[in-house]
Amino acid sequence: MNKPWRELKPSLNGKTLICFPFAGGYSVSYRGLAQALKSNWGVIAMEPPGHGTNREPLIPDLQDLISLYEDKLEDHFHSPFALFGHSMGGVVTYDLLMRLEKRGIFPELAFISGMVPPHVERANRSKLPDDEFIKLLQSYGGLPDEFLRERELLELFLPMLRNDFASIDNFKYSETNQLRTKVHFLSGEKDPVAMPDVVKEWERYAPRSEFHSINGGHMFPINQAGEVANLIGRVLTDTFVL
């Protein structure tokens, strides 16, 4: 696959919002958000190897996946852009921001959603027995109904889901520097993974930060896509003349 992303909304102003998916997610996961976004900004969403239509092998090391994204997105870094990442995508966003800033490349702004800051210990979830792992996924609200009805279908996706969770469980940030980019942090008021008071601790890594809470659980960018899109659109409108 030459480009591991999909355009979800064309740009009307030469500016692009680049979206990084959560564990088990892929480009179409953000279709609802892109459709609800009332902005002239374009939206592209990443299609990780082994996810969606990307038939390349899964990448077990998240640093390697971030390196792939950095390489394949190079052309986008020379036009105005912003980043959005939820959960695993939030880890990707922060680490990629540090890499880009080290190179003197600065996004217009960034959004990190549903992820705890680097100093907070993350649970080791990828090695749970299948039944416990599935219950965990259900508690996050991220399993489609058809997966719950058809166990065989779910089992087809378990290797990909375990790969993604293992990549987060084993991840070590390349650095944990303070960011110069303005970052908006989003949290779900009922999120068991990244509670708002814990998300607030990101401020030590991003002095130029704002915090927003959404009335939802961990999967609020999907289940409350309209509310998240309104927030992003409002931030872009307040920040730029569109």
Automatic annotation (TrEMBL):
MF terms in GO: hydrolase activity
Keywords: Hydrolase
Family of the protein in this entry: Belongs to the thioesterase family.
Domain Thioesterase TesA-like: 18-236
Protein name, entry field: Thioesterase TesA-like domain-containing protein
Species the sequence originates in: Tumebacillus flagellatus
Domain of life: Bacteria
SMART domains: PKS_TE
GO BP, one annotated term: lipid biosynthetic process
